[in-house]
Every structure is written in structure tokens, then in C-alpha cells.
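Internal tracking record. Fields below are filled automatically when a chain is submitted to the structure queue. Please do not edit lines marked as system-generated. If the sequence contains nonstandard residues, flag them in the REMARKS field before resubmitting.
Queue: standard
Priority: normal
Entity type: single polypeptide chain
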Amino acid sequence: MAALSSSMTISYLHSLSCNKSCLLTSQFSKPLFINQTQKKLRFSISFCLKQNESGIEQDEEEEEEFTVVTAVKSRFNEIVIVDTFASRYLLLDSTRNVHSVINKGGQNWTGAYWVNVVIVFNFESYQHFCLKDESACLPPIIPNGPIAIYGLGGGTAARLILELWPSTELEGWEIDEILIEKARDYLGLSELEIPTSKGGRLCIHVDDALFPSQDDSKRYAGIIVDLFADGKVLDQLQEIPMWLELASRLMPNGRLMVNCAGIETEVKNGKPQLVLDDLAWMLNSTVKILSEAFPGQVSWKRTPDSEGLNFVALTGGLPDLSDWSSKVPVRLSESVKLWKLCETVPLQLGALNAS
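SYSTEM-GENERATED OUTPUT FOLLOWS
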């Protein structure tokens, strides 16, 4: 596949943003094949996990037209916002990673723990993953106090947390001022800055979350870390001193919840294979560095789809899963039971790798 330069991609998408419609296909397993004679942009969203109200996995296929609302390149990102009949999506950087989903009609659930997005543009394909509903599980297992979101994006996580826990004080950190401007204009981010009936609200900081201009020592009850560049966890988050610094910003008994992305896996018959079951976390560099920074105090979970490629980590030890399950919304009550403590078994891991 011939790659396009970033400037060409943004320029073409920007030209489409002038009220032109294109075809969007949502699907689960098939890539979207583009007809070489077709000049329109085609866009495919493939959900790794789709659940109904009962928590049962469902396959769905649908086709919709979509409009590119805005496309602009900032110092930090290539920002594209697309609009469909049901939702609006924020795509960032050259990977077209979906960072925010705003569902229309008042439904703030994204319908998936992770969204696998495939965009085919002039014969180039991008595939990445992003965390959505998981952060809504954090408030019941941390002290009362403000929660920071490092990597605010378009505010999907903040919107859901304020819906479920409307008294929560949120502080969203985002380094990209233009992204915040576009999210306020097109994703309703400014609505979250207005206090709820219970007093909760989102306060936005346009700043580097890792090196803030203010002292945040022992300020937060929880910190949600969702920091990526070009589809990868930031390099700074592969260093123990950085995690110790972030932990110093927590109140006593506070926790970090971290989007750790995935791992490299063997592919058979076009499908990624499960790796090492309970030891799979050791192949994720971010979970591994967290476990080294906080020995015996890091828990992890893998997304509950059949592929199991993506990881979330939690500091502060393994919560009481039964108690936690009883305090979160019903659609997340089974999901929280999947958390496990990072337990190191070097000999077993070595033997499995050798085999």
C-alpha cells in the first residue's frame, strides 16, 4: 500500500469537511476493501466487543453516510472529527486512533470497552485501539476527591463519569490547545465545564500533564492515564521515576488507572492468538514497568473479547471484586471481576516462551 503524507491526508480530509458525505461501514471481522475506481473516502469502524443491555456480545453490521466536520493539523496532532447519524468521532494523529466517541440521543456509553478502528484512505489502512467505558469504574474504589484525566481528548471518559457520578470533580489535562478548541466547538466539551446539579464539573488544563506548571502533590483521589503519541504509549511512561512522580500526586489510598495498549501476538488464520493467559501482562511493557515501580500493588485486566489484545492497569492493590462489582453500573458489574493481581512467575514464563 502506498502511504500518503500527513499534509496530503489532512488537506484532502479538510476539503471533504465542506458538507460532503462519504460512506461509513461498521463491521466486526472484515476489512473494508476499497474499489480502485472510487474517489470517495471510505471509513470502517470495527468493534472488538459490542454488548447489549444484558452484557451479551452481539454482531452488528450497518452502513451510514458520514461527514468530515473538521480536519486540521496542530503542533501535536492531526485532528479529524467525523459525524454519522448516530455518533460523532474524534480521530487523532497519523494512526487515525479514535480518542472520543459522542453518541447522539443522550447515550454516553460507547458500547465497547475498546474500539478497533480501521480507516481505509487511498489504499492506506490504519488500525488502533482506545479505552472508553472502563474509567467509569474508578470512583467507587478511591477516596472522595478530584480525579485527573491525563489525555482528555474530546472528553468521552469525563462525560460518562459525570453522568454516573455527578458530584465528581474532574480535572482534564490536554497538551493540545487546538484539540480542546475543536472539542468545545464540535464535541460538546464545554457542556462538561458547567457544574451538574450535584456540583461536579470538568476543569480543563491546557498543559503537559507529565510536567505541569503547578504543584499537584497529594492532590488527586485518582488519575486516569491515557497518554499516547502516534498510537503508542508515551516513551516517558516506560520509566519508573515517572510513575513514582505521578503516584506522588495521589492522596493516601488513591489509585492510577492506566491505558496500557496491547502486546505483539502470533497471528494464525488472520486472527491474533491469546498469549500466556494469566502471565500475558508480562509481555506488555507498560504493565510490566508499573509492576516494577509498585511491587505487589498493580492489578491488570485484558479486554473481555475473544482476542484479548488490550490491557488496563490499576495501582493500589487488588480491590475487593465483589464489593466493587456491587457499586458500579450493572453493565460493568461483571467486567470488574476480571481484574487480577500482577503475579510474577519467571520460571513458568520462561518455560512457556521456550516452548
